[in-house]
Write a structure and sequence with these properties.
The complex is a heterodimer. Chain A is mainly α. Chain A is 78% helix and 3% strand. By secondary structure, chain B is of the alpha/beta class. In chain B, the strands form 2 sheets. A 7-stranded mixed sheet of chain B has the order 6-7-8-3-9-10-11, sandwiched between helices. In chain B, strands 2-1-4-5 form a 4-stranded antiparallel sheet, with helices on one face. In chain B, a hairpin with a 2-residue loop joins strand 9 and strand 10. Classes of the chains: A mainly alpha, B alpha/beta.
């Protein structure tokens, strides 16, 4: 029964990882940009919600009404000022520029908010600890279920937007081939800026759930980025539903790992990530090619 | 006044100047064929006109406006549409989505989903199929239909017969024939690159021969012979035919 319980907890945790990772996956799928500031931006959203809750007594979920548009606007500006310019110079520069952005964000938040650990849990009443008991004695937290449902709704909404709307068609066309999309009237610049705004909308929501379910400080971002990155890679970069599966696989692995050993939470997650990555590389042949190159180098006098 | 005026246009691929000082005037309703061997600069010229390749020097004036520095999507919105070499469909999108995405150009005109399907009836049963699963002829029809959905005033066609069976080529040209109204003011202006000289002579009002990035001859198709064009094609210059000009 303990294992079943851990499995269910892992599934719920996977919902959070999927929520956290979907913006990262979306940006990579559309623009081939890996946003290394993703985790820090989620923490920024958490701080904004914390400010609203602490100073104006606004419930964090209600605070999203203000924070989501603000983060979307930030996404638009971020694309126009940083990502668009750096993406012109190849794949490496966006990595460097978003890494720099993460450093600036982390240290700016440290400067403004200090090193104190914060949480939004005190501002959501009993939602942070209320739970349901399922048949068999498995206990699930209401916040965990809400996180999972929001993740499903967000991924489903993004999927529907991409599949059914004019903006979605333009995003998919620009993601496939920006030059050709422009030939048929798609403004790729605007589409990319809109995509970054959408990604940061999801980041804002993920930041809210990060802060409601756990504690955060100015340097929480990079760790969250690693979990999001692992979920994206496990599920297949750029695939929205793959991100959900990746999040669940990571969450379940961590949860089961924690049951095996007190240090097993992180080790099991990272190990699963590496095993999936290597298995995929092996399946596509690139790992075998790399091994062959190593053998050839070793054999060459 | 010409609908499309190209003035001393240059375009480069790195250190190579692929288009070298080309000047052309294209009138409303005219069908102009660009002829030349591989590497003559035909595709680069079309891509530069459409805005997906930068202008290194010179000007492109479309309907009285200098569009040399205007991005491709705004040129499409102004009425310049390119059917690129190799079709370049959005292969993971359906045929219908490929056509509808071209509504982004937001140009009013006679072309919409219904009229495109009327012109290319072979696409009707394939509307919900992924574009990447179509035959070559169906893909080419989708690519042309997608360009038509922008309601272009000038249609740039780059090797629409490349890689297609003779039957598929015939089907594509049958559908295009209604566009190429032989110089009537109502017809769409077409600039096409085509390797099949027989077909070029059949559809074009004017033939422009290119060699190593330059225009080496141009003239009305009914005043040039196939042998003359072949000579320019391979760089063996012959005396100009009546009504042709060489540069």
């Amino acid at each position: 029964m303990i294992w079943l319980n851990q499995l269910v907890q892992g599934l719920m945790l996977g919902g959070y990882y999927a929520l956290l990772a979907c913006g990262l996956s979306f940006m990579f799928g559309v623009m081939r940009i890996i946003n290394l500031a993703h985790g820090s931006l989620a923490v920024l959203s958490a701080y904004l919600l914390f400010l609203l809750a602490d100073r104006y007594d606004i419930h964090p979920l209600l605070g999203l009404v203000a924070v989501v548009p603000a983060m979307a606007l930030l996404g638009w500006v971020l694309h126009r000022l940083v990502l668009e310019r750096s993406a012109r110079a190849g794949a490496l520069l966006p990595l460097l520029s978003t890494f720099g952005l993460a450093t600036v964000l982390d240290n700016s938040m440290f400067q403004v908010f200090g090193a104190d650990t914060r949480s939004l849990a005190p501002y959501i009443d009993s939602l942070s600890y209320d739970s349901w008991t399922l048949p068999g004695g498995v206990i699930v937290g209401q916040l965990s279920v809400l996180t999972f449902v929001v993740a499903l709704a967000l991924l489903g909404g993004l999927h529907l937007m991409l599949a059914r709307t004019s903006l979605g068609r333009r995003i998919r066309a620009a993601a496939h081939d920006a030059d050709t999309a422009q030939l048929v009237g798609v403004n790729a610049r605007s589409v990319y800026a809109a995509s970054t705004a959408i990604a940061l909308t999801t980041v804002a929501i993920a930041g809210a759930f990060l802060a409601m379910r756990a504690t955060f400080d100015p340097y929480t971002g990079p760790q969250q980025l690693i979990f999001a990155f692992e979920a994206v890679v496990i599920g297949g970069a750029g695939s929205l539903w793959g991100t959900l599966i990746g999040g669940i696989v990571l969450g379940v692995a961590q949860s089961l790992g924690a049951q095996v050993h007190s240090q097993g939470f992180l080790i099991a997650g990272h190990t699963t990530f590496l095993v999936v990555l290597l298995a995929r590389e092996y399946a596509t042949g690139s790992f075998r090619r790399w091994l062959r190159t190593l053998r050839l180098r070793a054999a060459t006098p | 006044m010409s609908l499309l005026k190209i003035e001393a246009l240059e375009a480069r691929h790195g250190l190579l100047t692929a288009v070298q000082g080309i000047s052309l005037d294209i009138e409303q309703g005219e069908t102009v064929a660009l002829v030349g061997a591989n590497g003559a600069g035909k595709t680069t010229l079309l891509r530069t006109l459409a805005g997906v390749h930068p202008v290194a020097a010179g000007r492109i004036v479309f309907d009285g406006q200098d569009v040399s520095a205007v991005p491709a999507n705004f040129r499409a919105a102004a009425g310049l549409a390119l059917v690129p070499e190799g079709r370049k469909l959005f292969s993971n999108m359906t045929v219908e989505e490929n056509l509808l995405v071209a509504l982004s150009a937001k140009r009013a005109g006679p072309w919409n989903l219904a009229t495109v399907l009327e012109a290319f009836p072979q696409l009707k049963p394939k509307l919900k199929a992924a574009a990447g699963t179509l035959s070559g002829g169906q893909q080419q029809a989708t690519a042309i239909g997608r360009a038509l959905m922008t309601n272009p005033r000038v249609l740039l066609l780059d090797e629409v017969s490349l890689g297609l069976s003779p039957l598929a080529v015939q089907g594509v040209y049958d559908s295009l024939r209604s566009l190429m109204g032989k110089g009537t003011p109502q017809s769409t202006t077409v600039v096409l690159v085509e390797q099949d000289l027989q077909r070029t002579f059949a559809v074009a009002d004017r033939i422009v021969c290119m060699l190593e990035g330059k225009v080496v001859a141009s003239g009305r198709s009914d005043e040039m012979t196939r042998d003359q064009v072949m000579a320019y094609y391979f760089g063996h210059r012959t005396p100009a035919a009546p009504g042709t000009s060489t540069k």
